Amino acid sequence: MSEVYAMTISRRKFLEVGALSTTGIVSSSLAYPQVHSERTSTPIKVDTQNLLVVVDPAACRWSAQVKGTTMQLNDVHFLPNDDPSGWKVVSAVNKADDNKFGSFVTVTLHGTKPGQLDFDYQLSVSKLNNDILVSLGRANNTGRPINIDDMDYFVSTDALLSGTTDKWISLGTHSRNRDYYKLLPVREAVTPAMYAVNHVIRDADSGNSLLMGHVTALKGASRFEVRQGWEDKSSDRMSVRGYCNYKITMPAGKAFVGEKLLIHFSSDPLRAMEHQADLIAVAHDVRLKQRRPIDLDDREWVSENYCRYHGWMSGGTVANARKFVQEHNLDAYYIGGLTGYGPSGGGFALYGSGGAVHRVPNRINFPAECYLPIGTPRYESERVIDFSNPVAIKLENERAVKWASTDSQRAGWCSTDFSDYWDKWPGQYDPYLTSLETYRIGTLPWREVIDKIAPRRAIRSNMNAVDHSYGIVDICRISEDADRGYEYGASALLPPNADCQFVETVMSSANRFFYNGRVFWNDGDGFHVYKYVDPDGKNFNYSQAKVVANFRSIADNTILVSEAFDEPYPEDRIELLKRVSPPTMDVAYPVDLFIRQPAQIWNMPVERPFGNWNVVGVFNYTHLLRVERLSNSLVQMLDGTDDTPFTTELDAAKDLRLDPSKEYVVYEFWSKSLLGTFRGTFKPRLVKPYDCDVYAIVEKQDHPVLLSTSRHVRQMAFDIKDLAYDSGQRVLSGVSRAVAGDPYQLRIYVPDGFSAQRVQLSDGLSATMKTKENLFTADYVSTTGKDVTWKIFF
Fold first, then answer.
1. Domain map of the chain by residue range?
2. Is the pTM of this model over 0.85?
3. Which of 5, 105, 532, 786 is 20 to 30 A from 727 in CA distance terms?
4. Top-level CATH class of 3-283?
């Protein structure tokens, strides 16, 4: 008898069907038609490529395991108090549930009980991967209104990965944009640790992982909890819970279908988080890269929406920014925000100064019935608009139409702001609408009028409820304003209440990486390379500026420089600004998200029709570096007084998503250094405190390959429009975007047996050639800023 069978059969008899099938004692073919529906106490088994799920309809329980692994969820229940008595349950099985999320076998349980809400519980088991989608719909056939607060979708006190819980590290994502990620061993979760968007647990030894997260966010606001085994007596299992918060009064005769929540086992939690974002995008019809691309051929579009200079929080003005850009010839770097036009919004749902939109009246003239009879303590007791009231929606739609109709073909944006405390308050016009629904009702008019009237505009959010914005917001702020310096002196990048520091961006970008380029374009807020708002008489030094500028260029996909621009800037800061602007549509992930807090290594895979490569950023944010162990885990945290440089080793396959059998060439951008080649394991250079390295990693070929260019820290991702090698002619050719007057360098790895003979450039330009060992460089300056076609003959 297998270990899995012995363990599960002792817990619940209804697991016999599934457990025995893993030992070969019971046939794997359970006889049921394509769609089967009956009142039955017979366990239903779903046996797919990767998953084995057993459902007991009478007990309203189920269990799941990943075949060939120890990863399991056992005795999962959802009924209040886990009490099936008095419920009449009808089960149905659909073996051909092919939908936009994939191909599933779906088990549906329909339950009724006098005096209780009916339920429709759906458990969809993927045929091809490790997805389990759970949905819980309710119908009120009691003849009376019923209040609904929290509603369980799945609860298990018997969840396993592998090994023991002291090595199980958890983190999650909140709805509010000002919450940072935190690494926590499950053993230390004596009380449940809760997150709203997802909760991910990874075993530090095996990599086995469990992700619980939402796919839809339309009515019920999801919550996911993890707790240690009861009183830590079960060192190899944990308790998990997924539920939705409604806070509604459900009238008689009403029904809702419930959210789709995801349970996903894997050996790669970062890919699992990206997979969740892909499902969210499908569920909410986002199509971000098609509808709101960072189109580098549309300069106005990029400069107005994704690459802007302003200084309003730092004491600057539009005039200062415009003068600064002109003096340093920065227009060619796609810099926007210089006109003062700014079709933007203020507070999303507040009475008073907030809520104004460019050339559109404020909400202060809305009738009193449009506001809740409360004042919020967060916003100095300002009243909150009631978007469950049809009058408020009508007036909001009129505001949106008026705004979108003004200069409708001009690129720009509107914003939602100061709404991440959005909640359900007493006195709402329609008590059946949740806070999530009213938020979406209030913002949808802006989405609709932009799509219909002003398609060159985008919606960005600042302090918003992140998960309420799916399918509505294009650019999402994922940190608070970062305008008051780099870090607190006493404790580096870890203070829980860091207010408007660079820490905001670092700690908030990491666990929201999965949204970027899938659901939103992540905006790390304004950043600084010199001046900032606090009147402490200090400016950023170059080391701080280098870390900030590179981090913002690699980890996020907007460039928002928030400086006063009212005095001369050092040339090295100008150079930083040139090399990080503008963003591209490529996105990065934090390699060491589950190992270090904060993550210090970011990998950006770049894919083009002419080739693929990686851009890797390695950061040492501070001199306050100390390795600290959480329980027996391997988590490293920045909180000490050590000036030791940072170093690490990266696995080609697990960390960088590269082929471990291939050889790769490495070039570092800022030091202009060819580091050589590696296979299987890459060891970056030592990085001193307050510094960073940015590497281009390119597959080694049996011919010369382009490694890097000097234009952008994303190395080739922005400027290379075409690239090819002609083996017959021994010619490497390409097309590069150019900036007039900006020195440009091509950096090429030349294998043994090749040597560069000459360089040919378009428009009569000439290049300076240089070879040092296996590195060949060609330098030129474009006089016009037109694309440059180049050929290098070997």
1. 3-283, 288-589, 600-793
2. yes
3. 786
4. mainly beta
